[in-house]
């Protein structure tokens, strides 16, 4: 665990997926398989999460239609854009345990920000569905809006500059080890979130 103590932070920065919002990608697979009339396993076997099209979609360089066309080709299923979108947005499975209690408590003590690799359809969806929870963040830094994504150094530098606090005084929470390493390489204090308890434990260590 990263060394944290009361008074050691001026801002908290949260990833969204599996830190604030629960994600279940099997819901997308099941939806697409249902529309395509095939077994989910057939789609799982062909789906490449971090494809070039996926990365370009996350930084707003290709349209939703182009991304869904790439899925249509790679997955070998002839479903419509609307059917792809339905599954794409089905992955949001609610709030992570305890986060609805932790965020408002933390927000009373210091500013909260979010930094997420995401895409326009997901932003449109979660901004409406989880507006109350996301209202605790002063700003959302989203890869599809800023054109940069974790774990790239330029992405962390952009967010640190926008927050306006020294990197070492920002505590960053993320569920992916490569993003935690990327944040630490740019001077942030980073917490690897592997269970819902990790956020609460870190806040406790910060005296929150």
UniProtKB/TrEMBL annotation:
Naturally occurring in which organism (per UniProt): Bradyrhizobium niftali
Lineage start: Bacteria, Pseudomonadati, Pseudomonadota, Alphaproteobacteria, Hyphomicrobiales
Listed name of the protein: HAD family phosphatase
CDD domains cross-referenced by the UniProt entry: HAD_sEH-N_like (cd02603)
């Amino acid at each position: 665990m990263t060394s944290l103590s009361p008074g050691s932070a001026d801002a908290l920065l949260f990833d969204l997926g599996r830190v604030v919002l629960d994600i279940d990608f099997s819901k997308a697979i099941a939806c697409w398989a249902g529309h395509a009339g095939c077994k989910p396993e057939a789609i799982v076997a062909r789906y490449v999460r971090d494809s070039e099209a996926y990365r370009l979609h996350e930084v707003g360089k290709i349209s939703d239609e182009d991304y869904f066309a790439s899925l249509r080709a790679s997955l070998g299923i002839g479903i419509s854009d609307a059917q792809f979108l339905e599954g794409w947005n089905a992955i949001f499975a609610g709030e992570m345990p305890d986060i609805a209690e932790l965020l408002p408590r933390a927000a009373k003590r210091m500013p909260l920000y979010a930094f997420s690799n995401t895409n326009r359809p997901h932003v449109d969806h979660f901004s409406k569905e989880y507006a109350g929870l996301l209202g605790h963040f002063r700003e959302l830094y989203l890869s599809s809006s800023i054109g940069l994504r974790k774990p790239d150094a330029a992405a962390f530098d952009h967010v640190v500059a926008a927050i306006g606090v020294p990197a070492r005084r920002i505590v960053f929470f993320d569920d992916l080890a490569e993003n935690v390493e990327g944040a630490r390489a740019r001077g942030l204090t980073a917490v690897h979130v592997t269970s819902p308890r990790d956020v609460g434990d870190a806040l406790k260590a910060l005296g929150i």
